[in-house]
Amino acid sequence: MSQHHGADGDDEYGLFVDGAFRSGTSGDRIDVTFPYDGSVWATVPRGTAADVDQAVAAARDAFEGEWGTFGGSERRRVLDQIADVIEAHTDELAELETRQNGKLIREMRGQMESLGEWYRYYGGLAEDLGGRSIPVENKAETGGMTVHTREEPLGVVGAITPWNSPLMLTTWKLAPALAAGNTFVHKPSEETPVSALRFAELVAERTDLPDGVYNVVPGYGPEAGEALVDHDDVDKLAFTGSSTVGREIAKVAGEQLIPVTLELGGKSPNIVFESANLENAVNGVIKGIFAATGQTCVAGSRVFVHETIHDEFVDAFTDRASEISLGNPLDPDTQMGPIAFPEQWETVASYVDRGAEEGATVAFGGDRPNDLPGECFIEPTILVDVDNDMTVAQEEIFGPVASVIPFADEAEVIDLANDTDYGLAAGVWTEDMRQANRLVERIEAGMVWVNEYRAVSHKVPFGGYKDSGLGRENGREALEEYLQTKSVWYDQSGEVSDPFSLG
Ligand code: NDP
User: Fold this and answer.
1) Half-sphere exposure (CA, 13 Å, Cβ side) for 338?
2) Is 220 in the pocket of ligand 1 (CB under 6 A)?
């Protein structure tokens, strides 16, 4: 593995504030572990409220300083440079991601290879950022009144990200935030802080992004995270993680009266109709729940299957699941890696037990394989005899556990699919496109894939209905989340106005 340069030596990272590594004020450190074998391979400072204070002050200075003078074209140039940096370091960044969270190197490499597109896309939007000219009636006879709008940045963004796709979920916030002209303080997950720190270092070394625009304070959620959320000089919050923490963050944003983007959990339905191409549907369901070891917010964890093909589908699904190769996530041939850390393994295993207690049958998996190291492997797990009211069908498990639920007709499956607090994503497998369109209209979810699952693009809005979130990431919509509108009225008529008439 290539060497890195923290404030305190190789693989001992500092926090990254104002363009350089610094030691944390507490002196305490957090271990970063490779979940495949449990080995500790890096440490980071345990960030405190004082560290967050310094980072926010640096971000404020940068916002009011050089970065604030950059026009859209200059921001585009810097965003292109960031894309170049990522593209020149895909292997290194992908390896850091895998060593932190155990996700497959092949998936992390794929993510790193595409990440530059986000910076290029939002760079293009930055260059094109303008307001509107609005015709108004006032003084129309003299043509004296003109109105236009300006799209302005919000200021300092406080961003909190989870462990499952660390740099990708950071990029979904950072790229539009920078394009809009904001500065950024980032608290990555305690499990996966290294890739953000190394990325910040690379960006500082190799691009013209001014110091203080991107700051990274690693630490614990209830400590550094809360300090960032509560900070009264932060102008916007952006969060990906659990709905429980998201709700708390929304409350603080409400108190502070600042906007917040929340990308939260899901319990997404993946619906297989009798007309579906079965092989394609099985592969799509596997992709939805076993890719990324189920640790994805869009996991298709509720698999609804038409009752006429239920048994045939379950046979094909269990056969296919039995072929999945578990192993070292750094091996490009591995198809499923470990769970990211032991506590999350316990959570996943306890849900499997709970399912069995409530009447589900484990049709495949459910155990720790005994031929693999560490404490974090669990077999791909298929539960049948599941009722949509059971805990395993209502709560987000965030692991490779599929609940298969039969349905009789379209109306029933729409009701079942929507019978959840969440509304992030859905999959529909059918060769009948009229049927697909009916489902698309009636499913309460921010994203619906038809004969596909888990596709994302920098151009396509991503976000949830109901308890799955607020606002959108990706696409033009995300840029709006980091802007505020100023309306400017110019009276060029030269007329003396009447103080008691409006307009
Ligand atoms: P959390 O929501 O607890 O954590 C996400 C981020 O928020 C982390 O950086 C965490 O820091 C931080 N955080 C935690 N508590 C606070 C707080 N009080 N104030 C500010 N920031 C805070 O998710 P977990 O990582 O603990 O995972 C728990 C569950 O959340 C999973 O099992 C899954 O169901 C769901 N989840 C959903 C994700 C999604 O993509 N929608 C992603 C990850 C998890 P730290 O890690 O240091 O505690």
Assistant:
1) 30
2) yes
